[in-house]
Amino acid sequence: MERLFAQAAGNGVDDLEWLTPAQVHALEPAIHCIAALRSPSTGIIDSHALMLALQADAERAGAVFVLLSPVVGGEALANGVALDMGGENSVRVTARTVVNSAGLHAARVALSLRGFPAERAPAYYYAKGNYFVLPGRAPFNHLIYPVPEQAGLGVHVTLDLGGQARFGPDVEWVDRIDYQVDPRRADVFYEAIRRYWPDLEDGALQPGYAGIRPKLQGPGQPAVDFWIQGPAEHGIAGLINLFGIESPGLTACLAIGDYVLELLQD
User: Fold this and answer.
1) What is the greatest pairwise CA distance in the chain?
2) Most buried residue among 42, 70, 92, 234 by CB atoms closer than 10 A?
3) Which positions ≥6 away from 104 have C-beta within 8 Å?
4) Which of 186, 193, 177, 219 is nearest to 32 (CA)?
Protein backbone atom coordinates (compact mmCIF):
# COMPACT_ATOMS: atom_id res chain seq x y z
CA MET A 1 0.00 0.00 0.00
CA GLU A 2 2.94 2.34 0.60
CA ARG A 3 4.11 1.58 -2.93
CA LEU A 4 0.62 2.34 -4.25
CA PHE A 5 0.61 5.63 -2.37
CA ALA A 6 4.00 6.58 -3.82
CA GLN A 7 2.96 5.50 -7.34
CA ALA A 8 -0.20 7.60 -7.10
CA ALA A 9 1.81 10.66 -6.06
CA GLY A 10 4.20 10.07 -8.96
CA ASN A 11 1.23 9.97 -11.33
CA GLY A 12 -0.20 13.23 -10.03
CA VAL A 13 -2.89 11.73 -7.79
CA ASP A 14 -2.40 13.80 -4.67
CA ASP A 15 -5.66 13.34 -2.75
CA LEU A 16 -5.20 9.84 -1.30
CA GLU A 17 -5.81 9.59 2.45
CA TRP A 18 -4.52 6.97 4.89
CA LEU A 19 -7.26 5.43 7.05
CA THR A 20 -7.01 3.43 10.24
CA PRO A 21 -9.20 0.36 10.80
CA ALA A 22 -11.45 2.45 13.06
CA GLN A 23 -11.89 5.08 10.34
CA VAL A 24 -12.67 2.37 7.79
CA HIS A 25 -15.22 0.82 10.16
CA ALA A 26 -16.96 4.19 10.49
CA LEU A 27 -17.32 4.39 6.71
CA GLU A 28 -17.82 0.70 5.91
CA PRO A 29 -18.76 -1.37 9.00
CA ALA A 30 -18.69 -4.65 7.04
CA ILE A 31 -15.07 -4.29 5.93
CA HIS A 32 -12.15 -5.89 7.77
CA CYS A 33 -8.68 -4.45 7.19
CA ILE A 34 -5.46 -3.42 8.90
CA ALA A 35 -5.12 -0.19 6.89
CA ALA A 36 -6.66 1.49 3.88
CA LEU A 37 -6.21 4.25 1.34
CA ARG A 38 -9.22 6.42 0.52
CA SER A 39 -9.47 8.00 -2.91
CA PRO A 40 -12.12 10.73 -2.75
CA SER A 41 -11.81 11.49 -6.49
CA THR A 42 -12.63 7.91 -7.55
CA GLY A 43 -16.15 7.23 -8.79
CA ILE A 44 -18.25 5.42 -11.37
CA ILE A 45 -19.53 6.51 -14.77
CA ASP A 46 -22.37 5.50 -17.04
CA SER A 47 -20.27 3.92 -19.79
CA HIS A 48 -23.12 3.71 -22.31
CA ALA A 49 -24.08 7.36 -21.79
CA LEU A 50 -20.41 8.31 -22.22
CA MET A 51 -20.18 6.46 -25.52
CA LEU A 52 -23.43 8.00 -26.77
CA ALA A 53 -22.16 11.46 -25.84
CA LEU A 54 -18.90 10.84 -27.70
CA GLN A 55 -20.85 9.59 -30.72
CA ALA A 56 -23.01 12.71 -30.67
CA ASP A 57 -19.94 14.95 -30.46
CA ALA A 58 -18.34 13.12 -33.39
CA GLU A 59 -21.46 13.34 -35.53
CA ARG A 60 -21.81 17.05 -34.84
CA ALA A 61 -18.23 17.40 -36.08
CA GLY A 62 -19.14 15.62 -39.33
CA ALA A 63 -18.26 12.00 -38.52
CA VAL A 64 -20.29 9.18 -40.06
CA PHE A 65 -20.56 5.82 -38.26
CA VAL A 66 -20.71 2.71 -40.42
CA LEU A 67 -21.48 -0.51 -38.54
CA LEU A 68 -21.30 -4.19 -39.52
CA SER A 69 -18.41 -3.49 -41.87
CA PRO A 70 -15.42 -5.52 -40.64
CA VAL A 71 -11.91 -4.73 -41.82
CA VAL A 72 -10.75 -7.82 -43.74
CA GLY A 73 -7.49 -6.43 -45.09
CA GLY A 74 -5.81 -3.46 -46.68
CA GLU A 75 -2.46 -1.98 -47.52
CA ALA A 76 -0.16 0.92 -46.84
CA LEU A 77 -0.14 3.52 -49.63
CA ALA A 78 2.07 6.48 -50.32
CA ASN A 79 -0.72 8.88 -49.36
CA GLY A 80 -2.44 6.94 -46.58
CA VAL A 81 -3.93 3.55 -45.79
CA ALA A 82 -6.44 1.52 -47.83
CA LEU A 83 -8.91 -0.59 -45.88
CA ASP A 84 -10.89 -3.44 -47.42
CA MET A 85 -14.27 -3.60 -45.72
CA GLY A 86 -16.40 -6.73 -45.63
CA GLY A 87 -20.05 -7.21 -44.82
CA GLU A 88 -23.01 -7.25 -47.18
CA ASN A 89 -21.46 -4.66 -49.52
CA SER A 90 -17.67 -4.96 -49.59
CA VAL A 91 -15.80 -1.78 -50.42
CA ARG A 92 -12.28 -0.31 -50.29
CA VAL A 93 -11.82 2.92 -48.35
CA THR A 94 -8.66 5.02 -48.56
CA ALA A 95 -7.87 7.37 -45.70
CA ARG A 96 -5.04 9.71 -44.80
CA THR A 97 -5.44 8.71 -41.15
CA VAL A 98 -6.46 5.37 -39.67
CA VAL A 99 -6.74 4.75 -35.92
CA ASN A 100 -6.78 1.02 -35.26
CA SER A 101 -8.72 0.69 -32.01
CA ALA A 102 -10.02 -2.84 -32.60
CA GLY A 103 -9.52 -4.00 -29.02
CA LEU A 104 -8.99 -7.75 -28.87
CA HIS A 105 -8.41 -7.78 -32.63
CA ALA A 106 -6.10 -4.77 -33.01
CA ALA A 107 -3.00 -6.88 -33.69
CA ARG A 108 -4.87 -8.96 -36.28
CA VAL A 109 -6.10 -5.82 -38.05
CA ALA A 110 -2.57 -4.40 -38.17
CA LEU A 111 -1.18 -7.64 -39.58
CA SER A 112 -3.89 -7.69 -42.26
CA LEU A 113 -2.45 -4.50 -43.80
CA ARG A 114 0.05 -5.26 -46.53
CA GLY A 115 3.23 -3.36 -45.85
CA PHE A 116 2.87 -3.42 -42.08
CA PRO A 117 6.03 -4.91 -40.50
CA ALA A 118 4.91 -8.11 -38.77
CA GLU A 119 7.54 -7.78 -36.07
CA ARG A 120 5.84 -4.57 -34.87
CA ALA A 121 2.62 -6.39 -33.94
CA PRO A 122 2.68 -7.59 -30.33
CA ALA A 123 1.63 -11.00 -29.13
CA TYR A 124 -1.74 -10.88 -27.38
CA TYR A 125 -2.69 -12.87 -24.29
CA TYR A 126 -6.33 -13.12 -23.32
CA ALA A 127 -7.08 -12.53 -19.63
CA LYS A 128 -10.71 -13.27 -18.91
CA GLY A 129 -12.25 -11.37 -16.04
CA ASN A 130 -15.33 -12.94 -14.46
CA TYR A 131 -17.83 -11.12 -12.27
CA PHE A 132 -20.26 -12.40 -9.67
CA VAL A 133 -23.15 -10.29 -8.41
CA LEU A 134 -24.72 -9.91 -5.00
CA PRO A 135 -28.54 -9.81 -5.25
CA GLY A 136 -30.38 -7.33 -3.08
CA ARG A 137 -29.07 -4.30 -1.27
CA ALA A 138 -25.31 -3.96 -1.09
CA PRO A 139 -23.72 -3.57 2.37
CA PHE A 140 -21.22 -1.04 0.98
CA ASN A 141 -21.24 2.66 0.17
CA HIS A 142 -17.87 2.84 -1.56
CA LEU A 143 -15.84 0.92 -4.12
CA ILE A 144 -13.67 -1.53 -2.21
CA TYR A 145 -10.34 -2.71 -3.62
CA PRO A 146 -7.91 -5.21 -2.13
CA VAL A 147 -4.19 -4.83 -2.77
CA PRO A 148 -3.65 -5.44 -6.53
CA GLU A 149 -2.36 -8.76 -7.80
CA GLN A 150 0.05 -9.39 -10.63
CA ALA A 151 -2.32 -9.29 -13.62
CA GLY A 152 -5.22 -7.31 -12.23
CA LEU A 153 -6.69 -5.26 -9.41
CA GLY A 154 -7.93 -8.25 -7.46
CA VAL A 155 -11.54 -9.23 -6.78
CA HIS A 156 -12.96 -5.86 -5.80
CA VAL A 157 -16.40 -4.43 -5.09
CA THR A 158 -17.96 -2.24 -7.75
CA LEU A 159 -21.31 -0.52 -7.27
CA ASP A 160 -23.37 0.08 -10.40
CA LEU A 161 -25.63 3.09 -10.97
CA GLY A 162 -28.49 1.19 -9.36
CA GLY A 163 -26.51 0.51 -6.19
CA GLN A 164 -26.08 -3.24 -6.79
CA ALA A 165 -22.73 -4.76 -5.85
CA ARG A 166 -20.69 -6.91 -8.19
CA PHE A 167 -17.41 -8.58 -7.41
CA GLY A 168 -14.54 -9.04 -9.81
CA PRO A 169 -12.83 -9.38 -12.00
CA ASP A 170 -10.62 -12.35 -11.36
CA VAL A 171 -7.87 -13.32 -13.81
CA GLU A 172 -8.47 -16.42 -15.92
CA TRP A 173 -5.99 -16.89 -18.75
CA VAL A 174 -7.78 -18.26 -21.81
CA ASP A 175 -6.85 -19.08 -25.41
CA ARG A 176 -10.17 -18.16 -27.02
CA ILE A 177 -12.92 -15.58 -26.73
CA ASP A 178 -15.67 -16.95 -24.49
CA TYR A 179 -17.82 -14.77 -22.25
CA GLN A 180 -19.59 -17.51 -20.28
CA VAL A 181 -19.09 -17.35 -16.50
CA ASP A 182 -18.33 -20.74 -14.96
CA PRO A 183 -20.37 -20.95 -11.71
CA ARG A 184 -17.64 -23.16 -10.23
CA ARG A 185 -15.30 -20.17 -10.06
CA ALA A 186 -17.45 -18.85 -7.21
CA ASP A 187 -15.29 -20.84 -4.76
CA VAL A 188 -12.30 -18.63 -5.62
CA PHE A 189 -14.45 -15.52 -5.23
CA TYR A 190 -15.71 -16.47 -1.78
CA GLU A 191 -12.13 -17.00 -0.59
CA ALA A 192 -10.93 -13.68 -2.02
CA ILE A 193 -13.90 -11.60 -0.83
CA ARG A 194 -13.86 -12.95 2.72
CA ARG A 195 -10.37 -11.54 3.20
CA TYR A 196 -11.99 -8.10 3.49
CA TRP A 197 -15.69 -9.02 4.02
CA PRO A 198 -15.63 -12.02 6.35
CA ASP A 199 -19.42 -12.07 6.81
CA LEU A 200 -20.18 -13.05 3.20
CA GLU A 201 -22.66 -15.92 3.41
CA ASP A 202 -22.39 -19.16 1.47
CA GLY A 203 -24.57 -19.18 -1.65
CA ALA A 204 -24.92 -15.39 -1.75
CA LEU A 205 -23.12 -14.87 -5.07
CA GLN A 206 -24.61 -15.39 -8.52
CA PRO A 207 -22.74 -15.54 -11.86
CA GLY A 208 -22.72 -12.14 -13.52
CA TYR A 209 -20.84 -11.45 -16.72
CA ALA A 210 -17.31 -11.61 -18.08
CA GLY A 211 -14.95 -9.49 -20.14
CA ILE A 212 -11.67 -10.31 -21.84
CA ARG A 213 -8.63 -8.06 -21.60
CA PRO A 214 -6.00 -8.01 -24.38
CA LYS A 215 -2.84 -8.32 -22.31
CA LEU A 216 0.59 -7.61 -23.75
CA GLN A 217 2.15 -9.93 -21.19
CA GLY A 218 1.44 -13.56 -20.44
CA PRO A 219 0.99 -15.44 -17.16
CA GLY A 220 3.78 -14.77 -14.70
CA GLN A 221 5.32 -11.98 -16.78
CA PRO A 222 5.77 -8.37 -15.57
CA ALA A 223 2.86 -6.04 -16.27
CA VAL A 224 2.98 -4.09 -19.55
CA ASP A 225 1.06 -0.88 -20.16
CA PHE A 226 -0.84 0.18 -23.28
CA TRP A 227 1.16 0.47 -26.50
CA ILE A 228 0.01 3.43 -28.57
CA GLN A 229 2.04 2.96 -31.73
CA GLY A 230 2.58 5.69 -34.30
CA PRO A 231 4.32 6.04 -37.67
CA ALA A 232 7.72 6.56 -36.05
CA GLU A 233 7.52 2.99 -34.75
CA HIS A 234 6.12 1.12 -37.76
CA GLY A 235 6.88 3.39 -40.71
CA ILE A 236 3.36 3.81 -42.13
CA ALA A 237 2.22 7.42 -42.38
CA GLY A 238 -1.19 8.12 -40.90
CA LEU A 239 -1.58 4.81 -39.04
CA ILE A 240 -2.05 4.73 -35.27
CA ASN A 241 -2.37 1.36 -33.52
CA LEU A 242 -3.87 1.08 -30.05
CA PHE A 243 -2.47 -2.18 -28.70
CA GLY A 244 -3.36 -3.66 -25.33
CA ILE A 245 -6.08 -1.12 -24.51
CA GLU A 246 -8.12 -2.81 -21.80
CA SER A 247 -10.65 -1.65 -19.22
CA PRO A 248 -8.83 1.52 -18.04
CA GLY A 249 -9.08 2.68 -21.65
CA LEU A 250 -12.73 3.58 -21.02
CA THR A 251 -12.10 6.18 -18.32
CA ALA A 252 -8.84 7.22 -20.02
CA CYS A 253 -10.45 7.55 -23.47
CA LEU A 254 -10.24 11.36 -23.65
CA ALA A 255 -6.59 11.38 -22.58
CA ILE A 256 -5.84 8.63 -25.10
CA GLY A 257 -7.56 10.70 -27.78
CA ASP A 258 -5.40 13.72 -26.93
CA TYR A 259 -2.27 11.56 -27.14
CA VAL A 260 -3.31 10.17 -30.54
CA LEU A 261 -3.80 13.72 -31.83
CA GLU A 262 -0.31 14.61 -30.66
CA LEU A 263 1.13 11.63 -32.54
CA LEU A 264 -0.70 12.64 -35.70
CA GLN A 265 0.60 16.19 -35.44
CA ASP A 266 4.25 15.13 -35.03
Assistant:
1) 65
2) 234
3) 124, 126, 177, 212, 214
4) 193
Q: Report all structural domains of the chain as residue ranges with CATH numbers, in order of start.
A: 71-123+224-265 (3.50.50.60), 125-215 (3.30.9.10)
What does each C-alpha distance from 6 to 23, 41, 42, 146 come to in angstroms? 21, 17, 17, 17
Q: ∠ at Cα 126 (124, 131), nearest 5°?
A: 155
Which of 193, 175, 176 shows the shortest CA–CA distance to 131?
Answer: 193
Residue 265 is predicted with a pLDDT of 83
**What distance in Å separates the CA atoms of residue 160 and residue 148, rounded to the nearest whole number?**
21
In the Cβ-directed half-sphere of 192, how many Cα atoms lie within 13 Å?
Answer: 24
Q: How far is CA 40 from the centre of its chain?
A: 21
What pTM value is reported for the model? 0.86
Tens of pLDDT, residue by residue over 70-124, are 999 999 998 889 999 987 778 999 999 999 999 999 999 999 999 999 999 999 9
Q: Contact at 8 Å (CB) between 238 and 81?
A: yes
Going by the DSSP 8-state scheme, the letter that residue 144 receives in this structure is: B
Among residues 212, 256, 236, which one has the least CA distance to residue 95?
236
Other CB atoms within 10 Å distance of the CB of residue 181: 20
